User: What shape does this take?
Amino acid sequence: MMDENRDKHEAAVAPQPLPASRRDDLDAAGRSLSEALGISFAILKVIMIILVVAFLASGFKTVGSDEKALVLRFGKVRGVGESAILGPGAHWVFPYPIDELVRIPVEKNINLRIGSFWYKETRDDILGGGVRPRNYVPDQLDPVQEGYCLTGSQRAATVRAGAAAAPTLVAAGPLGDGSDYNIVHTRWEINYQITGVEQFFRNVHVNEAKPGEIYFDIMNQSITPLLRSLVEDAVVKAMVHYTIDEALQSTDTIRRRVQQLVQQKLDEIESGIRVMQVQLVSVKWPKQVDQAFEDFVKASQTSGQTITQARAYAETTINRVAGQIAEPLYAAVQDAGATEDRLAALWAQAAGEVQDIVAQAQAYQTRVVERARVNADYLLRILPEYRKRPELMTREIYLATIREVLRNVDEKWILERCKGVKDYEIRINLSRDALAKPRQNPPNPAGR
Assistant: This one.
């Protein structure tokens, strides 16, 4: 009975044959669907091919003329050494996320300004306006808000100048080494360049550039704190070895020393950064001692001018007196061991006024010698006569001398002793004109 029921059920659900017209309609619909699916797959293939081509084409990258690049494959540098570095031009790499091209500017000089050692400036101070007067000076320097650096003393500079090695500060003072320190405000500017691409990428941390951000800007922001710290440390170490005068004059040795210290630290960490130039942009003493420094600078300038004038006067005087041989001649005269030949040779080379003085001295010497010789000959001639009549010869010599003396006198007074007159009273007009000549008496024709 159960078998019969199952047979009836199967017969009831069995498909009934379709009419011929209905079968034709279904065949046309199937063909249309099949054609639509074929077209869709064809379009999909074309789209897939276009996407693959676009994906591969996105691997073409361009490196600028002032750039070099590294290829990161799954985050690691592809290649080793020079083979890992791509130069300027077009390159193909696998598109992201397989490969990533990191461009690093190597020919671009980047400037970084350091104002950590400058005094605090408000917006009004910078623009030159505001209610507060520009010459306003606080009573004290606030080390929390005011930047500054220390310079060493003159003694430290002297030790540095005499040492062959690197400068070393010595002595015992307010910081334990004896030197007098001074405060100055300075502003610096560093110009650097990336020369070691792989070293820079491996050893210097740079934040990852997000979509839409430029790697150069991110790189500059990331390494600025490092460079700023290194420059500040180098400035502090270098400035204490120079005097405040050297700092105010912005001597070239200071910036070279700072550049040397900064480059030394960068090389130690293998940063791939080369410091091209360090500039000491501004130097200023503390505003609290502005007047004292202005007086000091004025006095220094006056002193310098006076020293220059004195040296010029000394050189002119020396050249006028003896010429270029003056200093060796003076040293030889002061030297007790100098020989006569040496002195004679130097005197012969002397020029200027000293030659006239020497000539006059030689002429005077000649006159004295000749006069002494003449006197000696005269005395030798009258010696026999003197021995016969000494009183007469003595009187003759006395009278000859008196005649010689009176011959050169403009005015003469002859006072004769009179009988009966005990004393003489002589009156001389002291207010007479010294240039006035006495009136000559007319000659007496009769001889009386």
